[in-house]
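Sample 1 of the test manifest.
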Amino acid sequence: MATTAATVGQVGHAGHVDDRSFLRKYIFSTDHKMIGIQFLIMSLIFLGLGGTLAMMMRWQLGFPGQAMPGGTILPETMAPGGILLPEFYISLVTMHGTFMVFFAIMPLLVGVFGNFLIPLKIGAPDMAFPRLNMMSFWVAVPAGLIMLAGFWAEGGHAGAGWTSYAPLSEAPEYSGVSLGQQLWCVSLIVLGLSSMLGAVNYITTVINMRAPGMTWFRLPLSIWALFITAILVLLAIPILAGGVIMLLFDQTIGTHFFKPATGGQALLWQHLFWFFGHPEVYILILPAMGFVSDIIANGSRKPIFGYESMVFAIMGIGFLGWIVWGHHMFQSGMNPTLGQTFMISTLLIAVPSAIKTFNWMGTMWRGSLHFHVPMLHAVAFVAMFVIGGLSGVFMASTPVDIYIHDTYFIVAHIHYVLFGGSLFALFAAITYWYPKMFGRMMNAFWGKVHFWLTFVFYNLTFFPMHQLGLQGHMRRIYDPTQYQFLQPLQPLNQFISIAAFLLFAAQAIFALNFIVSWFTGAKAETNPWRDNALEWTVPSPPPHGNFAVTPTVYRGPYEYSSPEATEDYLPQDQRLPTDRVPAPKPAGD
Amino acid sequence: MPWSWLLPDGASTFAGRIDFLYYVILVITGIAFVVVEVGLVWFLIKYRARPGRKAEYIHGSTKAEITWTSVTAVTVVVLGLMSGPVWNQIKGRDSVPGDAMPVAIHGQQFEWHVTYPGPDGQLGSADDFDLRNQLHVVVNRPTVATLTAEDVIHSFFVPAWRIKQDAVPGMGIRVWFQPTEVGTYELACAELCGLGHYRMRAQVTVHTQDSYDQWLAEQGQNVALR
């Protein structure tokens, strides 16, 4: 403890005078921590919007054709008399997916925590390119506004699904949508620029700006995951941008990349979209795995089990992510021989996923588990990710996929990975790093209430979707009662809708806890979770420039319960008598 | 049976093979699920923090890593080897039986147009006729459908037959199936195709050979009357 106190004394109130103007400090800030907070607020707003759209969908699915309570505030073009129109319903489907994937989960994982954590955890004063970093956020804002504007577009918002399969997505004569779909394209191109600016920054920062002694294999797994994710973003986003630009050109200047009637290829869009889209799936889970690794080791007071296997598993998932895109297209009419190849590569993803899962369990094994709120969410992540991973085996098997492709089984799977996985990891990460971001603790009691309500209603919402899918219930249909074979499933659909409403309502607790704690939460100490990583050696919140003195790193971040330490943790920068001072970095490293 | 892990009754030669693979995967993933979740809950209880107990300082185990890596790898490769042949029998390019009855199915927002070969059993001849949203086939006899689409991508899905295949504009995709039960079923569109996607359904009627011949004769009269 003596050394911890010393580190606090060293950097706390270091006399750093922050003379930035309000505008420079809070709005056009180049400070990675403020940019992270800006991304946090923006993406939480989109998370709420995406959830609201889902609630409307669940109303229609549970109670098809009935007026939605409060629905009369929507214009006639969306819900006359409060009854959702089918064309508005498919816009909801499209925008729920688009908001959640591109404007909520991805920026929460990468924009928020990539920004906030990378410099702090590697011992750097800021990002390599702070101005690019600021631009990355201020490019994301107009992208979000353009995407929102589509709801006011004549003809309605894009309605071809978040995957926007051509030719439906590019043919106003078949979709009835023109401006909405074009805004969708423009928004994603602009957002792609934001993601790439961020990715360049993260990669450069991790390679160049690690503190002395912070070797690659002393990096926290969250940083490894964010680093590999940034490489995936840098390589995948240009493919999406390319595809979306082609789609936009087809709509506006008369090209026909995807128009079969004039010689284009409908399947080309799917190949481009999923060649981006599957790495994107791992962009949406790898950082989550990283955060959970940090938090589970902390909550277990034990070193992470199999650190190096965890790193290689992250790389393995990152690599395999590039050769599995065809599993989205087994039933698309692509050459069936390719189905075999993609099936094997897809099944192999189970290997690194299993390595990670068993290593998390190994970390908890013989630990001393402390169930703080972030730990509860992190454990839930493991429990739910397992379900999402195992359900993936069903559709990896090409023959089984024939039946369950495009059914609610897929909807259940994606939500077990993206909500059960990514979003629980985000609740863990937000509650864990909130004190470092805002200098105040979130309320633990309400944190636990939120966790349990979310965990229960989440499972009641999404688990029965497996059953719907197994009965053949198709995705993206406005009114399941049109089909005789789906009519017996209507009670289950209603059950899911009610569970979903309660799940949504429970999020109000999180929102209130987040906002109220910002103003009235207990002041956070420097290291409330007794963690080893470098961000916990600086005040909460850290000053501009982070470290008063560049830290020196002597070990990895997971040395909990080390016999060498008197406490049950051993900070990365604490020098023991046996530790040697690392040689200064050679110039140009 | 809404809460069931069982699949609904199948009515084609594919159903048995697909359902078998599904149940194999259900058992394997079910075991993995129970092992992991029970293990997790057990750890949460057994290793919860208590006064006087310290976590053990363990960094990992190469033996454990090798075990779970190889067990998982072998399991998924076996699943792949089991799935491959079934996929080829259903979707392989040369899997269509030579005696399959040909039909042409054309998806168009938001209906299915089915072209029948007529009494001569050949498509592209004068006795062909079209029906809207009605698919008639013979039990225990393979049928091969050439799927095309007018406007956007649709997907031919008969849940009871466990068959699904996208119909893509600009492509003619052959898909075959062999019903094993007489009766009426539903054909659904499984790919979002626009605002009427949810109502793009057709009725499937599986006849005995006799009742199909009778139905075909009636159609011939109808065509003649037109």
